[in-house]
């Protein structure tokens, strides 16, 4: 079988892959290839026909396809090669990439690989919701794709479990298409999605949001006939006697996204149990040398703008790697402390300028996020309001990093 | 009205095995199945284990047919291209009482003819299954695991290949013996006429039996729940691990699947509704708690699905039935009545079918079908091929180069093969059982919509005609307005 050499192979032509390609090209890397399994570039943005994308990156509100188009245009302007309808099925530690396409099996030996495969949705099976297994249970992204890409309606009377952003957006979308959304039920005492989506997708349409509630049973053996909703206590356990039966024909699940790292595992890339994505250093290099990761495959983002910007930052690390300037001595651990769910990167080199990305564990007001190394405070970010739904970023000054002691990020 | 020599009622593993065995003879064979596919009930909802035959009362059909089915399975798996691994199986114990119980099981097993049984110590147990918790075990080296979907589909497709006809979504509503001695079988869609009726209706067997005029059987049910774990833990379980069985129940076990997943279960809940496959929270909690003492690798992050199966409990006039009934009564001529075919029905399906067919052959004396071909090929799986073979598959058929299901690497060629299968099926579950698409960790998040689209295109279905599993389980309510 023929193996073709490539400087950089980018796996996935969604927002992360596209932005990485453009940035790499602009840094002088011309021998690169984007491998995309769909017919078109753009990734999941293609089915996100609502607006609100690009407010940070472009200072204007774009739809998903419009946002993707900005980057696809840049890719095409630079004649960056890409190949569609081609699915990577194997990735080795030595950066051999094998893909299936109608033209045959394709194999590349890459100097560097960029992982930008995005994420998948958590399913009913992962939640283990009791009841039968009728038709009419969809994850929010699948429902979105049926409606927006396949012109197909999934149901008429809908209950949404989980207040993730896609669920909130689908509440509005289903309503606009004539379905009755009975309500959005969230097990946590606060919404999982962005505040602006709660406002624009639920409140503007009179769709109720029930916090501290979850679905405890699905009824119907053929098509969904209804769901039992239960109020939950502080430990998220259903409170007996606090059940309501809601008749509906459809249950839409918006209960979280999981970075899609099956290929990463093949290449022995170490994963972080908190993010479910690779452990990286400040240049977004994973534990497998020459393999980099950005976007939702690394950690699930709130805004696509940050996905693009992260992938753009990654490009510099890839270029350094290609030049052989391996700053693999990334030995300073970065730890998530009190009040922080996770922080990225998980370790940094003392010569790197790290952008720390993190999430708080619970909603809070008037807090400070502090980065500390030993007794020394490296950075501090004062926030009037912090929500787990919203990613927080802090750019560290490399001059301030003096020792190789672990860093800790915490809320105070 | 369609006319047959034999109508088999029920297209599960037993009905399909009967149809296949009948097709060795020159007979016009029809199979009536109420569901849109052949493995939606007992045949699909079980532990997928090939049993060794040591757990059944000495002298019963169950014991004899189980051992027979177990010993011959390599051959049928080869003929029908069914994924099957003779893994062996251990029943794990810790206490002196457990040891006594295992010794008794060993004694019974030997008399039943189960081959190779032995009691092994902790060291040997740890060698066989390092991740297991236990002090000693009964090892059954002939036990194994198989793909129950492929087995049922394989039997059915082979029967079709040899001339049988399947009529899906035909629920039998009445059976009448006509003056000329033939039977009129009424279904939810149309009526059929036949000389012989074979009742292989599984959970519906008592109802069909009564329609035939054979009364005196009753059925209750036990619902067992299962959790399916991700392939990530598959390597930690090379063979099924069971606790020491009680007299009534095999106990909650952990079982590898031929695809590399692990199933946990079943428990046993008495139920009266034999059509409800609902799963309750407390059942799942209990499964995890109980099975973790045997095999401590059951973690929430690996849960990808759960399901329930109904194990019927049968009664006749004398009380609880302990054995399979395979009968051809002279007072109800030209019928074969199968009652009580529960576990080990999957293992014993073929021997059960031979006994049932023999009862017809003795009386009817049909000519042999000289064209009978016992083989069938399942859909060629891209994911199982070597890179060289994959390249060759794509060269021959470019649809092998289009991955539709990312978790299981199922290609468009396989999905198209499944859509155009010999039985004809229009459900997502039908695709799933034939290709493994939608069975992986994303549960169809990526591929379901592509498959639904292909089904519509290839079968010319309207958007509202695509079914999830059973009748009236439509996936879509229509087009976007």
Automatic annotation (TrEMBL), chain A:
Question: What's one Pfam family the UniProt record gives for this protein?
Answer: Pyr_redox_2
The cross-references to InterPro entries, in alphabetical order and at most eight, read:
FAD/NAD-bd_sf, FAD/NAD-binding_dom, Metab_Enz_Cyan_OpOx_G3PDH
Write the record's keywords in alphabetical order, separated by commas: Oxidoreductase
Q: What is this protein called?
A: FAD-dependent oxidoreductase
Q: Is Membrane set as a keyword in this record?
A: no
The FAD/NAD(P)-binding domain covers 6-300
Gene3D superfamilies given for it?
FAD/NAD(P)-binding domain
For this protein's source organism, the top of the classification is: Bacteria, Bacillati, Bacillota, Clostridia, Eubacteriales
Q: Which organism is it from?
A: Alkalibacter rhizosphaerae
What are the recorded GO MF terms, alphabetically? oxidoreductase activity
């Amino acid at each position: 079988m023929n193996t073709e050499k490539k400087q950089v192979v980018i796996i996935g032509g969604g927002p992360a892959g596209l932005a990485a390609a453009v940035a790499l090209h602009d840094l002088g890397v011309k021998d690169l290839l984007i491998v995309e399994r769909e017919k078109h570039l753009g990734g999941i943005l293609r089915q996100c026909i609502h607006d609100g994308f690009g407010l940070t990156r472009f200072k204007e509100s774009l739809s998903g396809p419009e946002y993707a188009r900005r980057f696809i245009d840049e890719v095409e302007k630079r004649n960056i090669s890409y190949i569609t309808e081609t699915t990577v099925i194997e990735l080795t530690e030595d950066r051999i990439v094998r893909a299936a396409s109608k033209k045959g099996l394709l194999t590349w030996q890459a100097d560097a690989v960029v992982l930008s495969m995005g994420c998948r949705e958590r399913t009913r099976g992962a939640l283990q919701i009791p009841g039968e297994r009728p038709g009419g249970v969809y994850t929010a992204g699948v429902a979105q794709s049926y409606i927006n890409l396949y012109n197909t309606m999934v149901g008429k009377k809908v209950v949404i479990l989980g207040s993730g952003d896609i669920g909130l957006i689908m509440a509005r979308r289903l309503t606009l298409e004539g379905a009755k959304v009975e309500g959005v039920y969230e097990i946590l005492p606060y919404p999982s999605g962005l505040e602006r989506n709660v406002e624009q997708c639920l409140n503007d349409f009179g769709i109720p949001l029930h916090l501290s509630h979850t679905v405890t049973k699905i009824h119907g053996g053929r098509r969904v006939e209804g769901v039992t909703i239960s109020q939950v206590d502080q430990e998220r356990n259903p409170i007996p006697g606090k059940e309501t039966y809601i008749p509906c024909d459809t249950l839409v699940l918006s209960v979280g996204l999981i970075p899609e790292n099956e290929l990463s595992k093949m290449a022995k890339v170490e994963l972080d149990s908190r993010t479910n994505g690779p452990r990286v250093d400040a240049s977004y290099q994973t534990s497998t040398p020459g393999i980099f990761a950005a976007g939702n495959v690394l950690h699930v983002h709130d805004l696509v703008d940050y996905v693009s910007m992260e992938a753009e930052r990654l490009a510099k690390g890839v270029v350094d790697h290609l030049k052989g300037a391996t700053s693999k001595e990334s030995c300073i651990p970065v730890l998530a402390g009190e009040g922080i769910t996770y922080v990225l990167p998980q370790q940094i080199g003392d010569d790197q300028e790290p952008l720390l990305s993190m999430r708080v564990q619970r909603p809070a007001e008037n807090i400070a996020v502090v980065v500390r190394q030993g007794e020394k405070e490296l950075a501090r970010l004062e926030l009037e309001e912090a929500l787990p739904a919203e990613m927080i970023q802090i750019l560290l000054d490399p001059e301030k990093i003096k020792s190789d002691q672990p860093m800790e990020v915490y809320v105070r | 009205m369609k006319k047959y020599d034999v109508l088999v009622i029920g297209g599960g593993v037993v009905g399909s095995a009967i149809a296949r065995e009948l097709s060795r003879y020159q007979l016009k064979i029809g199979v009536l199945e109420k569901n849109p596919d052949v493995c939606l009930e007992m045949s699909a909802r079980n532990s997928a284990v090939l049993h060794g035959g040591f757990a059944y009362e000495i002298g019963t059909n169950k014991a004899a047919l189980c051992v027979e089915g177990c010993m011959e399975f390599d051959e049928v798996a080869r003929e029908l291209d069914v994924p099957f691994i003779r893994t062996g199986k251990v029943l794990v114990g810790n206490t002196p009482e457990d040891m006594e119980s295992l010794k008794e099981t060993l004694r019974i097993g030997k008399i039943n003819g189960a081959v190779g049984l032995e009691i092994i110590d902790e060291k040997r147990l740890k060698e066989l299954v390092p991740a297991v918790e236990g002090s000693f075990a009964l090892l059954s080296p002939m036990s194994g695991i198989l793909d129950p979907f492929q087995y049922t589909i394989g039997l059915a497709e082979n029967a079709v290949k040899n001339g049988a006809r399947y009529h899906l979504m035909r629920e039998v509503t009445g059976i009448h013996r006509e003056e000329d001695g033939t039977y009129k079988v009424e279904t939810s869609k149309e009526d059929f006429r036949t000389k012989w009726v074979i009742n292989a209706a599984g959970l519906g067997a008592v109802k069909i039996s009564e329609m035939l005029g054979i009364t005196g059987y009753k059925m209750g049910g036990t619902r067992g729940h299962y959790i399916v774990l991700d392939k990530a833990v598959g390597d930690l379980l090379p063979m099924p691990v069971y606790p020491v069985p009680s007299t009534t129940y095999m106990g909650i076990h952990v079982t590898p699947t031929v695809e590399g997943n692990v199933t946990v279960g079943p428990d046993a809940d008495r139920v009266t509704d034999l059509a409800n496959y609902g799963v309750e929270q407390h059942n799942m909690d209990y499964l995890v708690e109980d099975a973790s003492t045997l095999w401590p690798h059951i973690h929430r992050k690996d849960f990808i699905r759960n399901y329930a199966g109904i194990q019927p409990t049968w009664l006749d006039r004398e009380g609880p039935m302990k054995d399979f009934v395979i009968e051809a009564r002279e007072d109800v001529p030209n019928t074969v009545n199968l009652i009580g075919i529960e576990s080990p029905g999957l293992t014993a399906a073929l021997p059960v079918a031979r006994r049932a067919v023999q009862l017809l052959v003795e009386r009817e004396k049909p000519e042999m079908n000289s064209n009978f071909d016992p083989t069938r090929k399942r859909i060629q799986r891209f994911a199982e091929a070597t890179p060289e073979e994959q390249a060759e598959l794509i060269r021959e058929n470019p649809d092998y180069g289009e991955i539709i299901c990312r978790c299981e690497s199922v290609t468009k060629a396989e999905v198209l093969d499944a859509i155009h299968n010999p039985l004809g099926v229009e459900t997502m579950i039908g695709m799933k059982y034939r290709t493994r698409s939608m069975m992986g960790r994303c549960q169809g998040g990526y591929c379901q919509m592509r498959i639904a689209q292909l089904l519509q295109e290839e079968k010319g279905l309207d958007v509202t005609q695509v079914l999830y599993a059973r009748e009236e389980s439509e996936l879509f309510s229509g087009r976007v307005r």
